[in-house]
C-alpha cells in the first residue's frame, strides 16, 4: 500500500468532511499512485498510448469512491434529476454521486446504460428507476479519450426520452473528447486533465527518489 493510499485509509472520516480543494488534491495524488501507469497500451478506442489510467482503481477504492462522489456532485448542472453512465466504468461513479447526494438530503437516482440490450426480461438498455419523460440527466465517465463511450450513453438516454444536460469525466485525456461534445452541443467538464496527472506523477517520483 502506498503512502498516499495509507493516508486516505487511516482517516476515512476526513474524506467526508475535508474541504473540496484539499480533497481534489488528495484524489489527484491517489490517481498518480494507483491508477496512472506508463508503458505501451492499447485503448478501448483502438488507439495505442504510452500511458494508461485505470479509473476503477479509484472509483472502487473506498475513500476514492467517496471523494469522487463529493467532487462530482457540485459540478452537476442546476436542475439535474439523475446521473447516468455506460457500464462498466461509470457504474461505481453514478452510484457514489447518488449516495453522496442522499447524505445531503437530495434524491438523485443513478442509471446504468448497458452496451447491449438485456437478453431477457424487459430487454432494456437502461437499468435504474424509471423517470418522467424529459428528465434532465448528466452523463458521468471515468476517463474520456475520443468521447465515443459516453456519447453512446447520451444517445441511449435521448432515445428513451430523457434530456441530457452535459457530460462530466474524472479525467480528460485531451484526445478529441471535448471537441466531440462541443460539436454535438453537450457541455463537458473534467476534474483532471491528463497533463495535470502527468505533472503530479513526475513530482511524486522525484520526491520518492530524493527521500
From TrEMBL:
Broad EC category: transferase
Tell me the cofactors it needs. Answer: Mg(2+)
From which residue to which does the signal peptide run? none
Which keywords describe this protein according to UniProt?
Answer: Glycosyltransferase, Magnesium, Pyrimidine biosynthesis, Transferase
By its UniProt entry, which InterPro entries does this protein fall under? OPRT, Or_phspho_trans_dom, PRTase-like, PRTase_dom
The UniProt entry, under SUPFAM superfamilies, shows: PRTase-like
| Metabolic or biological pathway | Pyrimidine metabolism; UMP biosynthesis via de novo pathway; UMP from orotate: step 1/2
What catalytic activity does the UniProt entry give for this protein? Answer: orotidine 5'-phosphate + diphosphate = orotate + 5-phospho-alpha-D-ribose 1-diphosphate
Q: What is its EC number?
A: 2.4.2.10
Chain residues that bind 5-phospho-alpha-D-ribose 1-diphosphate: 114-115, 118, 120, 141-149
Q: Which residues bind orotate?
A: 145, 173
Xref: CDD domains: PRTases_typeI
GO molecular function annotations of the record: orotate phosphoribosyltransferase activity
Role played: Catalyzes the transfer of a ribosyl phosphate group from 5-phosphoribose 1-diphosphate to orotate, leading to the formation of orotidine monophosphate (OMP).
| Similarity comment text for this entry | Belongs to the purine/pyrimidine phosphoribosyltransferase family. PyrE subfamily.
Self-association or partners: how does it assemble?
Homodimer.
Q: What is this protein called?
A: Orotate phosphoribosyltransferase
